Amino acid sequence: VSCLPRQHLARLPSVDPNTRTIILCGYPNVGKSSFMNKVTRANVEVEPYAFTTKSLFVGHTDHKYLQWQVLDTPGILDHPLEDRNTIEMQSITALAHLRAAIVYILDISETCGFPLKQQVDLFNSIKPLFAGKPLVVAMNKTDLVSPQALSVENQAIISSLETSGATLIPMSNTNEKGVSAVKQTACDQLLAQRVESKLRGKKAEMIVSRIHIALPKPRDDKPRPSFIPESVRQKRTSEMDATMEEIRRLERDLEAEGGGPGVYSTDLRKHWDLKDDTWKYDSIPEIVDGRNIADFIDPDIMQRLEELEREEDALEAAYEASKAAEDVESDLDDEEKEILAAIKQKKTEAVIESHMRRSTKPKLPRGKREVDASVTRPKLEARGVHVPEDMQRGRKRG
Fold first, then answer.
1. Alpha-carbon distance 20 to 71, whole Å?
2. CA distance 338 to 113
3. How many other CB atoms are found less than 10 A from the CB of residue 7?
4. Bigger pLDDT: 297 or 268?
């Protein structure tokens, strides 16, 4: 049982309490998760029924080159605190302990299954948790019902929220109208509050006390406009013109000026590396210094090519002949080839046995093996080793 709280904490997302935060709250199925998916890179599950979100979800977004975290909280119902379940208490805990901007989302179309009056009653019941925090009320689903088309009673209920210091903004997650306005308003209000709280601190007072701003006072009423000499004006103008000329024009710009793709033809001659740049666009003459292009073609080029091919064939034939001469086994008959293969195999086994003797690894004990000379002698003679008769008899007696 003692491991259950630890497992529950491990499932919670990582929330930074010191960074800029926006908390989304409201009744179930009013569009909190849809708003979260619109303004952040998160992908929260969205379904057309209540309590789809059962825990806290954290997403991140950017505003004014700053990173913000957005908390999507589970839906809250309007009943006493002691009657709320664990899912609802996650939202209450986030609202109570995080310094953040609050975005309370209302479903003015009442398609969530809860009337507008009940949604406002929930707002009033948890309003003490909003104390000292920027508050934005987003009137969602305006694509179904616009605020002007509401009944007089519902318009009066929404107007009562303005007295609580909340900023009312209509929006729709479907057509994304007002979504960016809700995000921008909540972020700007929280930024202003954070700056104001820092200015109220002692550190800001210490810095301000060291700063002295000198404001010059006019000595008389005579106007003294700024004067720039004409030579300086001309120099600035010439420098600006030179700077504009130095701006590199890309091939894309030239293509747009030349009629666009399919009409513009790329000029390749401008990249030619010639001794004189004025030669780039000259037409190629047929005769220069009494010669034309045909004078620079070798008339014996085909004969030279045939000579090179014959020389290459001769080199290949010589290489094949030398390779055949190196093959020793080509001059041996079948019996000699078998003996040569057996000798090579014996050499390989001798090398392996030598490596085994020099090895420091532990060896498995081998028992004494009885070898019959009548079996060994034919194998040795087949490999070209002569076995004397006396050695054979001595081995047999032993």
1. 11
2. 96
3. 8
4. 268
